[in-house]
């Protein structure tokens, strides 16, 4: 997949990115900094302008009944999340055929990874700023900031093989957001929500639990094999971050099971008092150089 469009703002943005790349020791950041900025601006525009405009016209009844600022913001966040998935997944899949990445999973580089990670980082930058400005849950803030930091490391380059593969976790986000929109458009407990719920749980379990842990084991093996080349800090940060986000996936999976059951069985009870009853588990996002979205 080639993104060959060049804009007049590319050069000044690249000039801004160069000192930032030197400061952070991310040699490949400067070349992809313009795309990162464009992605951030696009997701911000969808959040603040495009989603409110289209939602009010295409779904005036459902969008109009959202009374609180938080409810309106959550709706628009979900639109951005869905939009991001349909952009980043094709970019991520395009990286899978790279022989360079396959031959060197830790240090290999391919410009396709740069484009993919630039879009993902633009998204997570928007996500982190929204979590700060519209603070709702510390988990969203930690999640966004962690993913932004970990994915930025791919510009070193580092973990270029794993970054696009963990982004495939976002596949389950499609059905999570559909589940939420069905709630907000009057289809709670409908056949459509039941079918979507089955697909959501199947997809989440497949890409995040099964494939996710398979990637995690391969990732840990690569880290261990390169332990002599990595500082103890790097080893601990990436290993701990990966395991933590995998544990969160397991937690979110349980919470989604309860939330979906609750739509069809009033007697369903969570195993813990903290399980959400609105199905709004944190975004599904990779856990390593790493993906949710709110």
Q: What does this protein structure show overall?
A:
- There is one protein chain.
- This protein is mainly alpha-helical and 294 residues long.
- The chain has helices at residues 10-24, 29-58, 60-64, 69-94, 99-103, 111-133, 138-152, 162-167, 171-184, 191-225, 232-264.
- Helix 2 packs across helix 6, helix 4 runs antiparallel to helix 6 (111-133) and helix 4 runs antiparallel to helix 9.
- The chain starts with 9 loop residues before the first helix and ends in a 30-residue tail after the last helix.
- The relative contact order is 0.12.
List keywords for this structure.
11 helices, globular, 294 residues, mainly alpha, 70% helix
The strand count comes to 0
Strand content: under 5%
**H and E string:** HHHHHHHHHHH
State the secondary-structure class.
Answer: mainly alpha
Total number of helices: 11
Distance between the termini: 28 Å
User: Low-confidence spans: pLDDT under 50, at least 5 residues?
Assistant: 270-294
């Amino acid at each position: 997949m080639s993104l060959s469009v060049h804009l007049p703002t590319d050069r000044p943005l690249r000039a801004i990115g160069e000192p930032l790349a030197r400061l952070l020791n991310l040699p490949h950041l400067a070349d992809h900094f313009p795309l990162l900025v464009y992605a951030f601006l696009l997701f911000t525009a969808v959040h603040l302008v495009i989603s409110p405009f289209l939602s009010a016209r295409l779904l005036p009844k459902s969008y109009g009944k959202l009374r609180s600022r938080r409810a309106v913001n959550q709706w628009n966040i979900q639109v951005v999340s869905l939009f991001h998935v349909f952009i980043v997944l094709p970019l991520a899949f395009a990286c899978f055929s790279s022989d360079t990445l396959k031959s060197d999973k830790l240090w290999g580089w391919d410009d396709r990874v740069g484009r993919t990670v630039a879009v993902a980082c633009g998204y997570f930058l928007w996500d982190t700023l929204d979590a700060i400005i519209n603070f709702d849950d510390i988990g969203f803030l930690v999640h966004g900031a962690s993913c932004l930091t970990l994915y930025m490391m791919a510009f070193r380059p580092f973990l270029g093989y794993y970054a696009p593969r963990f982004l495939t976790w976002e596949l389950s986000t499609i059905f999570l957001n559909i589940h939420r929109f069905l709630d907000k458009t009057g289809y709670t407990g409908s056949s459509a929500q039941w079918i979507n719920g089955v697909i959501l749980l199947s997809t989440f379990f497949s890409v995040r639990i099964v494939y996710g842990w398979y990637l995690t084991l391969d990732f840990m093996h690569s880290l261990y094999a390169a332990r002599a080349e990595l500082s103890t800090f790097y080893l601990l940060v990436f290993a701990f971050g990966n395991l933590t986000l995998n544990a969160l996936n397991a937690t979110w999976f349980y919470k989604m099971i309860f939330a979906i059951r609750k739509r069809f069985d009033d007697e369903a009870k969570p195993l813990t008092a903290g399980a959400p009853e609105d199905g709004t588990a944190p975004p599904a996002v990779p856990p390593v150089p790493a993906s949710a979205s709110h």
